[in-house]
Amino acid sequence: MDGFGTRAVTAVIFVSVMLIGILGGLIPYVVLFCVLLFLLLKEYFGLVLSEDQKSYPVRMWFGLIVGIFPYFGLLAERMEWYQASWIFALLLFSMVLFLLFMIELFSNSRQPFQNIAFIFSGFIYITLPLSLLHLITIHHGAYQHRFILGIVLLIWTNDTAAYLVGSRLGKHHLFPRVSPKKTWEGTVGGALFTILAAWGMYGLFPSFPLAGWIILSLIIVFFGSIGDLIESMLKRSIQIKDTGNVLPGHGGLLDRFDSFLYCIPFSVTFILLVESNTLNIF
């Protein structure tokens, strides 16, 4: 199979798995994003942590296991399985995090605080946004897919349109120091098609105002593009082309979820402000 065929088959399987997980209900959603969280953390830690140290496996598995705690902690709170206070949960998680310092103390590492920083950055970059998704997908124990589906479809629209427009019309580089292939023409083209897709999302889910969908699309275009550039910055800093090969023809998972991860905190905040009527959208 040639390169294009490999990319096409991978894309079809990837999109199918994502849609099944999102549209299949609560359990498929929880399983899908838990698996993604684990694999994204594993890929990230594999890129930034030094494998030539004996303590690497301990450090890696500590990051992977602890990294999924907030995901299930917030899930349990949204499902109303327990009513523990946020202060108690924060104190408990803080104690677990501080065990990382103990691991580095006894690991005889040449760069202990750099290792700690890398693991903490993984929690911020990957665990935090994927955990925040529960705030817009689960309400009083009930699963709702409209916002997560909307965010995913808008991101896919932006990425695809930006690539197609940029590859045909792109002449002016957007940020050549980090990503020489991205152009202003592609960025603007992606934004226009994403705004059009926002109208379609309003047709599917009119309970959220049209202005809300359009503003959400602009948030996704802007912060998604920033997330793409940040991931390019990561790859340049460690001198690699792709973050992995788990997706044949497409690279690693971070290559596919860079925009998604970065735009989630901003998208979730905006949605919650609108839904709570704190921010009135006409």
Based on Cα principal axes, name the global outline. Answer: globular
Q: List the uncertain runs.
A: none
Oligomer kind? single chain
**What is the overall number of helices?**
11
| Classification by helices and strands | mainly alpha
- Number of β-strand runs: 4
Strand order of the largest sheet: 1-2
Roughly what percent helix? over 70%
Specify the biggest β-sheet: 2 strands, antiparallel
Taken together, the total number of domains comes to 2
Average predicted local confidence, pLDDT: 89
Terminal CA distance reads 51 Å
Radius of gyration: 20 Å
Strand content: under 5%
Order of helices and strands: HHHHHHHEEHEEHHH
SSE inventory with pairings:
Blueprint: H1 3-23, H2 26-48, H3 56-67, H4 69-78, H5 86-107, H6 112-132, H7 134-137, E1 138-139, E2 142-143, H8 146-169, E3 173-175, E4 179-183, H9 184-204, H10 210-237, H11 253-275
Antiparallel strand pairs: 1-2, 3-4
Helix pairs in contact: 1-2, 2-3, 2-6, 3-5, 3-6, 4-6, 5-6, 6-11, 8-9, 8-10, 8-11, 9-10, 10-11
What does this structure look like?
The structure is a single chain. With 282 residues, the chain is mainly alpha-helical. The protein folds into two domains: 35-143, no CATH class; 145-282, no CATH class. It has helices at 3-23, 26-48, 56-67, 69-78, 86-107, 112-132, 134-137, 146-169, 184-204, 210-237, 253-275; strands at 138-139, 142-143, 173-175, 179-183. Strands 1-2 form a two-stranded antiparallel sheet. Strand 3 (173-175) and strand 4 (179-183) form a beta hairpin. Helix 2 runs antiparallel to helix 3, helix 3 packs antiparallel against helix 5 and helix 9 (184-204) crosses helix 10. The radius of gyration is 20 Å and the shape is globular. 31% of the residues are buried. The model has no long low-confidence stretch (mean pLDDT 89).
